[in-house]
Amino acid sequence: MSRLRRRMGRLAAGVLALAAFEGTGAALAQQMPAMPVTVANPVSRKITESVEFTGRFQAWPQVNITSRVTGYLDKSSFVEGSLVKEGDVLFAIDPRPFQAAVDQAAAQVKITQTRIDLTKANLARAEALKKTGNVTDATYQANLQAYQEAAASIDSASAALATAKLDLNYATITAPISGRITRQLVSRGNLVVANSTSPLVSIVAVDPIYFYFDLDEASYLAYQRASRGKLDTGGKDPTLKVEIGLSDEKGFSHKGTLDYLAPQVDAQTGTVTARAKVANADGFLAPGLFGRIRITIGEPYEALVVPDVAVSQSAQGRTVIVVGADKIANPRVVELGPKFGSFRVIKSGLKPEDQVLINGQMRARPGGEVVPQPTKLDVPETLVPDPN
């Protein structure tokens, strides 16, 4: 019994010692001095939100050059991979057979015209003799028929001459569009066949070049509401501006205009194909290049901006610490907007006069007192969205 009493005594002494220690710790915590922290008022800026998508450049139009006549390739007049202009001579097919056909068709036209002149003169004599009764009606009808046949045959001869001249013209192959030409696929001396499916060469347009990408359904709806009617420009150039960055660029250095949205949503992917037109006078942008496009969504609006480091995650959501006039630090739940560099847009939860803690979060205890050191935020007038 005495042993149990001794154990109970030691346990009671331990509890009293622990209570004394905790009391001392609480007293020390209450006696801790308020720590200095940096605070600042949020800054109001006009915000324009944007979304980004990935896609690839494509050329349009792209033309495969084939021959419209059959003949032997005589020469080529371009440098492979170079820029060519519409109307530049690319190939020449041996023109001699086509020139001979033109000469033959021209001679046939002359023969036919001579027949017309002869039959016309014979018909005039028959008409004169018919009036005096010195020619039979059958002879007159024969002369009339011969003249009509000759007059009709001139149309056929003229059409044959026009066809021969067209074939001679087709023997010289010119560029139908301006653009960059590919390597030559048929060499000099080969027989080329009219309208063959195998091209002699291809031309890819370079200026402008087009950027194709897919909009998700949510972005498509937001964009349609924000830009309702702007794509219908009555035949004029579209005014919806976009920015494009290449795979080795952090920013968006290439400017363009959105000029096409597919008329329907792909039910399999839930996306809408879109296209932007981009100037490419120097031919730097090549078809197939990967890129990122940034599109403005909605109208500009006024919002408060704070440093992104002032925002933290808590069980209640995204919060910032606001220091009141009583120098007490209290967390405030806020609704975030987009990030612009090192700054974050706060859509709701803050007022312009709030003092937001921007440095020293580790020294501020929720509900504890701090020593606020006010500063002024240096926020650019124009905020550039983060490149993702």
TrEMBL record:
Main subcellular location: other
Domain annotation Multidrug resistance protein MdtA-like beta-barrel: ranges: 231-298
InterPro entries: MdtA-like_b-barrel, MdtA-like_BSH, MdtA-like_C, RND_pump_MFP
Subcellular localization: Cell envelope
Domain Multidrug resistance protein MdtA-like C-terminal permuted SH3: 303-360
Residues in Multidrug resistance protein MdtA-like barrel-sandwich hybrid domain copies: 62-203
Record keywords: Signal
Signal sequence residues: 1-29
Region of interest called Disordered, as start-end residue ranges on this chain: 365-388
SUPFAM superfamilies assigned: HlyD-like secretion proteins
Entry-linked Pfam families: Beta-barrel_RND (PF25944), BSH_RND (PF25917), RND-MFP_C (PF25967)
Protein family according to the UniProt entry: Belongs to the membrane fusion protein (MFP) (TC 8.A.1) family.
Protein name as annotated: Efflux RND transporter periplasmic adaptor subunit
Organism the protein comes from: Labrys neptuniae
